[in-house]
Amino acid sequence: MVRLPVGGDQEASIDGEIPISRGGKGARPRPPQPRIDLKMKTAPSHPEGATTEDATGTELSQRELKAEALIRRHKRNMRKAAAEGFLAGVCAMLRPGDLVMDCGANMGVVTTVLAATGADVIAYEPDPFAFATLQDRFSDFPNVTLVQAAVGVGSGTVKLMRADNFEANPTGASVKSTILDGGRRIDAENSVEVPLIDFPGLVWEMVAQRGGIAFVKMDIEGAELEILERMDAEDLFQHVRCLVAETHERKFRDLRDRYKAIRESFATKYPSGRVNLDWI
After folding, report:
1. pLDDT digits (tens), the chain, 280 positions
2. How far apart are CA 240 and CA 257, in angstroms?
3. 99 in helix, strand or coil?
4. Which residues of 263-275 are buried (b: 16+ CB within 10 A; e: fewer)?
């Protein structure tokens, strides 16, 4: 049984052998708010002289490919700026004692920003390479708890598969590690077994202990889909003040219909300031 601090004299528990790392003890420092600069994942470029087809099956020239790449890059830069602005607004409202859950913390870029608010931050990261960086980075943060585990629906252990360029660039590629089969540019043979935490069950437990969750950030390479569907079915969003998630339709083609369905459904059920699926 693992105990997680949830504020005051209360604790929440997670069954299983899950590595937990807590920062130093003592008064909670409130360091200057760091500059928000979210890292973007880039798609592979097309080689010189290559042609491809668009959604209608029309062959595109190299010039057209470059133009489309520039348009995609511009749109992605706009989404990045919007995400940074949204996070800045969230952090302006977080206070010491609020509960924040960073799912898919990776190297801790967002965790650092959240920790600076003084809120209690629980950061979940399954990849051993990235988790080692988190341990080094947050060893002196008393309000940050690190959990080396994947989040999903269900509990136990699961295979974490890495990107096909992980060996060449583990720092950049670790952000793409996933527990879902069928992902684009994923090497299923390069995998490690990691603990799996049932996230909807964890939310219920935290709600019982704390009364609610201030903020959830979710960037978990496809595993967000089933979690979001389950949270919607169990009406869990009423207990979360704000949730942002990056969705991964481009990475998992077979799941695109389900992603489309939740986007359409959530757009009518939840304000975008409450459940935001355009994180990057």
Report:
1. 444 444 444 444 445 567 777 766 555 555 566 666 665 555 455 554 455 555 555 567 888 888 888 998 888 888 889 889 999 999 999 999 999 999 999 999 999 999 999 999 999 999 999 999 999 999 999 999 999 999 999 999 999 999 999 999 999 999 999 999 988 899 989 999 999 999 999 999 999 999 999 999 999 999 999 999 999 999 999 999 999 999 999 899 999 999 999 999 999 999 999 999 998 8
2. 26
3. strand
4. eeebeeebeeeeb
Structure tokens at 26: 């003592």
The closest alpha carbon to 95, from 143, 157, 158, belongs to 143
Rg (CA), the chain: 19
> What angle separates helix 224-233 from helix 256-269, to the nearest 10 degrees?
40
- Which of helix, strand or coil describes residue 253? helix
189's tokens: 């043979």
**DSSP label at 239?**
G
- Cβ partners under 8 Å of residue 260, min gap 6: 249
**For residue 212, how far is the Cα from the chain centroid?**
19
> What distance in Å separates the CA atoms of residue 152 and residue 186, rounded to the nearest whole number?
19
Helix, strand or coil, per DSSP, at residue 175: helix
Reduced to 3 states (helix: H, G, I; strand: E, B; else coil), residue 83 is helix
- Cα 153 to Cα 236: distance, rounded to the nearest angstrom: 14
